[in-house]
Each structure stands twice: as C-alpha cells, then as structure tokens.
Specification:
Structural class: alpha/beta
Shape: globular
Order of helices and strands: EEEHEEHEHHHHEHEHEEHH
Number of strands: 10
Largest sheet: 6 strands, mixed
Radius of gyration: 19 Å
Distance between the termini: 32 Å
Number of helices: 10
Helix content: 25-40%
Strand content: 15-25%
Length: 256
C-alpha cells in the first residue's frame, strides 16, 4: 500500500501540559482510518496540528511524498487535506450553495483584477464553480437545499454541507472531526454510507469519532490515543481486544 500521510513523533504542548507525546501514525491511500480515545486524549489536538491550526512542538509530517509545512490552514488545504470541525463552522447567513462555492474558490485561477472587471474568463469560471457546488450538494444528498441559509438547515444537513464544502477543495485526505456527534441512528447510518462513497470515489478518510460502533464497523485501521499518547494501532477487531484500550475506556487498570 502507498502511504499518504506519515506523522512522526508529533508533540504539542500547552504551557506545562503535554497534549501530544511523540505520536506517530501512518495513513494509507484509499483507506478509512479511525482515531479514537477518551475525552481529552488529544484527538482534536492532533487534527489541529496536521491541518495547520496549531503549530507542532516536535516531529514531522510527510504528506503525499512531500514534507508538510503546516504554517497555515489554507496552505494545508492547498496541499490536499480538508477537514470538518467538531463544532460545525459554516457561514450561517450564506446559502448552502454559497458555502460550497467558498470551498471551491480555493481551486480557482481568476485574478483580483479579472474579478473586478468581470472578464469572460472570470464569468465562465464562476459558472463552473457554481455547477460544481451544485454537483457536490447532490453528492451529499441535499441538492434541494441549495438556496436555503445554512443556519436554517437541520443539524444533519449542516453536517452534510460541511462535508460538501470540504470536498469542494478536491482533497486527497478528508479529515472528519466527530461528524456523527448529535445524530440519531438514521442520520448516522446515512453518514456511514456517505463516507463509504467518498472513499470509493478515491478520497482517503481520517475519522475522529466517539461512536465506537461506527468506527469499528467502518474503518480499515484504528489508532487509539490516551493522555496524548498512542496506545494502540491495528485493525478494529484487534484494537477492541487490546487490554490498554479496554483500560482507557473502562478505567480498569492494565497490568503489563
């Protein structure tokens, strides 16, 4: 298998708190990779480091064969990593269509001058961006909500919209931070189907999720963090049986 992302000895400190302690993991191209752990384990911190929201205090990241310099989120997105957030971050007063178009503009080629002059090339590109945005809304199952304000969408549809906006950037790696949070069983089942479709269409997925049943039934491999350290990494069936994982989730002391 081809390694898409390799994170080596990633460290992150907040004052005297070591949020990540030399975490290393590899994500293969074409897989759905799960990252789980109890509250406060460092999962979102790891996401924030690889997507440029936090600057790492140690370690290195290689993405798609090249060193990944996480100086800013937009540079990481340009490199091919897109993400959603644990707490939904949409442009609330913009329509669903406009939200996806914002994501698509990252791949646009028009200049500021061209936009001011509204040249034929700019108009054509804008039409193409809108068409692609509508295609993505259809892809995630909310084509009929294109003209509705993001703030007026249901919670589940907002989650789908955030995924559509992330896909608009044409990522090689889609990083989803607790996308099933707050969903009912029907919405979660639909989300699973969508994630499987995203992978089938060629995008690798990194998934943080508290729904362990979803993770174990969906992911090819799973890593487990606890107190900022990776304590397990394997196929789901093996991770579920790991005594360290059982201890982390149930609070049962593990005897080494």
């Amino acid at each position: 298998m081809t390694v898409l992302l390799s994170a080596n000895n990633i460290a992150k400190h907040f004052g005297g708190i070591r949020a990540l302690k030399d975490v290393s993991l590899t994500i293969n191209a074409g897989e759905i990779y799960g990252l789980i752990g109890p509250n406060g384990a460092g999962k979102t911190t790891f996401f924030n480091v690889i997507t440029g929201l936090y600057q790492r205090d140690g370690g290195d990241i290689v993405f798609d064969g090249q060193p990944l310099h996480v100086d800013s989120p937009h540079e990481v997105t340009k490199a091919g990593i897109a993400r959603t957030f644990q707490n939904i971050r949409l442009f609330a007063e913009m329509s669903a269509l406009e939200n996806v178009m914002v994501g698509r503009h990252l791949r646009s080629k028009g200049s500021v001058l061209g936009a001011i002059l509204r040249t034929a090339a700019v108009r054509a590109e804008e039409a193409a961006i809108q068409a692609k945005a509508r295609e993505l809304l259809s892809y995630v199952g909310i084509a009929d909500k294109a003209d509705i304000r993001a703030a007026s969408l249901s919670y589940g549809d907002q989650r789908r919209l955030e995924i559509a906006r992330a896909l608009a950037t044409e990522p090689k790696l889609l990083a989803l931070d607790e996308p099933a949070a707050g969903m009912n069983a029907t919405e979660t089942a639909a989300l699973r189907t969508l994630i499987e479709k995203v992978r089938a269409d060629g995008t690798t997925v990194l998934l943080i999720e508290h729904d362990v049943k979803l993770i174990m039934g969906l992911c090819d491999r799973v890593a487990v963090l606890d107190y900022g350290e990776k304590i397990a990494e394997d196929v789901p069936a093996q991770v579920q049986k790991d005594p360290r994982v059982v201890s982390a989730y149930l609070g049962v002391p593990h005897e080494s």
